[in-house]
From TrEMBL:
It comes from the Bacteria. Residues 1-287 form the RmlD-like substrate binding domain. Coiled coil: none annotated. Keywords: NADP, Oxidoreductase. One of its GO terms (molecular function) is dTDP-4-dehydrorhamnose reductase activity. The lineage of its organism: Bacteria, Pseudomonadati, Pseudomonadota, Gammaproteobacteria, Enterobacterales. This is dTDP-4-dehydrorhamnose reductase. Catalyzes the reduction of dTDP-6-deoxy-L-lyxo-4-hexulose to yield dTDP-L-rhamnose. Binds 1 Mg(2+) ion per monomer.
Length: 292
């Protein structure tokens, strides 16, 4: 099984490489990041796909700087839309299956029950708008799946868990937003879901939601991270936490208030989402091991 991975240095891409190396010797993986393949360059994408002839293209690359996208719409479009068009076209031409990662930001966040895959989209930011356009581009490939996910964390890159660890060490007190709700998702679980899709027969196509099991707020997520970090010995003392509304922490891009997505459809396809709480312990242990 030949798999071309884009976004190899990101959270999901890094976890996917670990998974392939540890458990899937039958996968011949070509892992690329921006320095090795500019996916916004159609000719470069066509050349590499033509040479490697992958069975699967897994696009884990994205412009994820949500606030910066508001002042850099062209940069966000190049990565989140144009690059996806290039990959979809190459996948279609060379008969490869395309896996593309998307986001809860395609919805407006104004709901009181989990978003279903077929709910009308209404993105409220440049990031969300480009990700929605990227979904449509991905699905121009006849054999493609879009995996929407949310609140991604891992031992790699920059993410909320690692930010909380750093701030917990630096400050005695933290104010955390408590009126945005969603489901944290471990990047390693997204990688595992992608691998299950790769080896499924038949492979599911279309739009699916995949996120960690359990609804919380950023405050609840932070509290769990910091409490577990104290137990793991990565933090000497629990900082004082204060819940605050979004209005007290304005950002250039609007955040969805409610990001919980229904995962019933992907579970029915045999790919089971898992709880994010024990994944915090796993990530903390990995970070602790890397420090020793």
């Amino acid at each position: 099984m030949k798999v071309l991975l884009t976004g190899a240095s990101g959270q999901v891409g890094s976890c996917f490489q670990d998974l392939a190396k540890e458990k899937f010797p039958q996968v011949t993986l070509l892992a690329t990041d921006r320095s090795q393949l500019d996916i916004s360059d159609a000719a470069a994408v066509e050349r590499l796909v033509g040479q490697f002839q992958p069975d699967v293209i897994f696009n884990a690359a994205a412009y994820t700087a949500v606030d910066r996208a508001e002042s850099d719409p062209e940069g966000a479009w190049n990565v989140n839309v144009q690059a996806v068009e290039n990959l979809a076209l190459a996948a279609q031409r060379h008969h490869a299956f395309l896996i593309h990662i998307s986001t809860d930001y395609v919805f407006n966040g104004e709901a009181d029950k989990p978003w279903a895959e077929d709910h009308p989209c209404d993105p409220q930011s440049i990031y969300g708008s480009t990700k929605l356009a990227g979904e449509k581009a991905a699905l121009t490939c006849e054999q493609a799946i879009v995996l929407r996910t949310s609140w991604v964390f891992s031992e790699y890159g920059n993410n909320f868990l690692k930010t909380m660890l750093r701030l917990g060490k630096e400050r005695p007190a933290l104010s955390i937003i408590d009126d945005q709700r969603g489901c944290p998702t471990y990047a390693g679980d997204i990688a595992s879901a992608a691998m299950e899709i790769i080896f499924a027969a038949p492979r599911p196509t279309g739009i699916y939601h995949y996120s960690g099991v359990g609804e919380t707020s950023w405050f609840g997520f932070a509290e769990a991270i910091l409490q577990k970090a104290c137990v793991a010995g990565l933090l000497e003392k629990m900082p004082e936490l204060t819940p605050i509304p979004t209005t007290q922490f304005p950002t250039p891009a609007k955040r969805p208030k409610y990001s919980v997505m229904s995962t019933q459809k992907i579970a029915a396809a045999g790919i089971m989402p898992v709880s994010w709480l024990p994944r915090i312990d796993l990530v903390l242990q990995k970070l602790k091991t890397s420090l020793s």
